[in-house]
UniProtKB/TrEMBL annotation:
It is found in: Membrane. Residues 190-345 form the O-antigen ligase-related domain. InterPro entries: O-antigen_ligase-rel_domated, WaaL-like. The lineage of its organism: Bacteria, Pseudomonadati, Pseudomonadota, Alphaproteobacteria, Rhodospirillales. GO terms for cellular component: membrane. It comes from Magnetospirillum moscoviense. Keywords: Membrane, Transmembrane, Transmembrane helix. This is O-antigen ligase-related domain-containing protein. The chain crosses the membrane at residues 20-41, 53-74, 80-101, 113-133, 190-219, 225-244, 333-353, 359-378. It is a multi-pass membrane protein.
Length: 402
C-alpha cells in the first residue's frame, strides 16, 4: 500500500518530538498523549477499523480504574478519587486507541515514526550529555528562566524524568532496528542512550537500562521463560513490598545500619516503612483512591541530622513521612486500592507479557522498574508516557516488531 506523505510526515514529527519533550518538559507528555489519542481515534474511524479488538487491551485497565472509582466510597478524598479515576480511565481509552492505530500502520508509516523517534532520542541524549557534563547546568538555567529558586549545589538533574522515558523509548528502537539490520546494529541506540544514562544521576533510569537488558537477553534465549520471569518477579515484588517494608529500618537508626546509602535513600526507606505499615491496616480494600495525599500521620516530620560516629555531620534529612505518594507504584496500589487493586495490576502485567517479543518484554521490565522506585502511580505525565511507549512497542499490521 502506498503511504501518503502527510501521514508519514506527521508520524515522523510525533516520534521526533516525544524524547526532547520528555527531557525538557515532561509534563507536556500528558497533552501530547491526548492529541495523539484523538488523531488515533480519527484514523480508526476513517479506516473503519474494528474497535472490538481494543477491549482485550483496555479491559483490565478500565476495570482497575473502575475499582479506583468505587473506592471513592471510602476514600478520605472522594471527589479527588473520582476525578483521578475518570482521568485515568480517559487516558486508558485514548491510549488503547493509540495502540490500535499503531497496529494499523504499514511498514512505510512505521518507518517514518521510528526514524523520527531515533533522531529525537539522539537529540534528547545530546541534551542530557550536556546536562551531566556541565554539572546539571541546563536544568539549573531553565529553573532560573522560569523564575524558580536556583538549584542547590549537588542537586540532581531536573531532566531525570526525561532520562527514565529515554530508557523506555530505547527498546522500541532496538526491536525495530534489529528486525531490519540485525542485532548488532539494532543495539546501537541502546548503547548510546545507555552510556548517557549511566553517566547521569538518575538511579531509576540506570536500573531500567540494566534490568531491561537482562530480560532482553533472557527473552532471546527463551521468550516464554522471560515472560514468566517478569510475571513471577512482579508478583514477588508485590508480596515483598507489603510484608518487608513495614520492617525497614528508618532514620536515625538506619544511619548506622545502612551508612553506605545516600541521605535521600534514608528518607525513601522511611516513606516505604510508613506506607507499608499503613497498607497493612486495610489490606483488602485499601484506604481509597488518592488517600496517599491525606493518610493520617503522613505530615509527621522526619527532620533529622546525620552524624558520623566521631561527631561529624553528614547532612540533614528533612521532609515528611509520606510526601503525596510513596515513590513505589505497588506500595501505592496496596495502600489505596488494597489486595483487589494489586490483583488487577498483576493480571494487567500478565496480559502484557502475552507479547513475548524480546524488546517488548525488556521495555515492560524497564517500566516496572521505574514505577517501583520513582513517581506517583497516577501522575498524568507518567501514565501518558506509558501509553505512548506501549503504542511505540505495538507491532504494525504486517507483524513487524517495534
Amino acid at each position: 500500500m502506498t503511504t501518503t506523505s502527510p501521514t508519514r510526515l506527521l508520524l515522523f514529527v510525533a516520534g521526533l518530538t516525544m524524547p526532547p519533550l520528555a527531557v525538557l518538559a515532561a509534563n507536556g507528555l500528558a497533552p501530547m498523549a491526548a492529541v495523539v489519542g484523538l488523531l488515533a481515534l480519527a484514523r480508526l474511524w476513517s479506516r473503519r477499523i474494528d474497535l472490538a479488538a481494543g477491549w482485550s487491551v483496555a479491559a483490565l485497565s478500565i476495570l482497575l480504574f473502575a475499582w479506583a472509582a468505587l473506592s471513592a466510597l471510602w476514600s478520605p478524598v472522594p471527589l479527588t478519587a473520582l476525578g483521578s479515576a475518570a482521568r485515568l480511565g480517559g487516558l486508558a481509552l485514548i491510549g488503547t486507541a493509540g495502540i490500535l492505530a499503531a497496529r494499523s500502520l504499514d511498514s512505510h508509516e512505521r518507518s517514518g515514526l521510528m526514524t523520527g523517534l531515533m533522531i529525537g532520542s539522539l537529540i534528547a541524549a545530546l541534551i542530557l550529555s550536556v546536562e551531566y557534563l556541565t554539572g546539571n547546568s541546563l536544568s539549573g538555567a531553565l529553573f532560573e528562566v522560569r523564575g524558580m529558586k536556583p538549584l542547590p549545589p549537588g542537586a540532581k538533574s531536573q531532566f531525570n524524568r526525561g532520562a527514565t522515558i529515554l530508557a523506555l523509548a530505547a527498546w522500541p528502537l532496538v526491536g525495530w532496528l534489529t528486525e531490519r539490520q540485525g542485532r548488532k546494529r539494532g543495539f546501537i541506540p541502546l548503547a548510546v542512550i545507555g552510556a548517557v544514562i549511566l553517566a547521569g544521576d538518575s538511579l531509576a533510569a540506570i536500573l531500567a537500562v540494566l534490568a531491561g537488558s537482562i530480560v532482553y537477553g533472557a527473552a532471546v534465549w527463551s521468550p516464554r521463560g522471560a515472560a514468566r520471569l517478569v510475571v513471577v518477579a512482579t508478583a514477588a515484588a508485590a508480596l515483598a513490598v507489603v510484608t518487608v517494608s513495614p520492617r525497614l529500618p528508618t532514620p536515625p537508626a538506619s544511619f548506622t545500619s545502612l551508612d553506605w546509602l545516600p541521605i535521600s535513600a534514608h528518607h525513601r526507606l522511611a516513606v516505604w516503612q510508613f506506607t507499608g505499615a499503613k497498607a497493612t491496616e486495610h489490606p483488602l480494600l485499601g484506604w481509597g483512591m488518592e488517600s496517599s495525599r491525606v493518610i493520617p500521620g503522613a505530615e509527621d516530620r522526619l527532620d533529622t541530622e546525620w552524624f558520623t560516629p566521631d561527631g561529624k555531620s553528614k547532612g540533614s534529612l528533612t521532609g515528611t513521612r509520606l510526601p503525596l505518594h510513596p515513590h513505589n507504584a505497588l506500595l501505592q496500589i496496596w495502600l489505596e486500592l488494597g489486595m483487589v487493586g494489586v490483583a488487577l495490576t498483576l493480571l494487567l502485567v500478565g496480559q502484557a507479557t502475552r507479547d513475548r517479543r524480546p524488546a517488548h518484554l525488556a521495555c515492560l521490565t524497564a517500566a516496572l522498574v521505574v514505577a517501583s522506585v520513582s513517581y506517583g502511580a497516577w501522575q498524568s505525565w507518567w501514565v501518558s508516557a506509558l501509553w505512548i511507549i506501549a503504542a511505540l512497542c505495538a507491532p504494525d499490521r504486517e507483524g513487524t516488531p517495534a
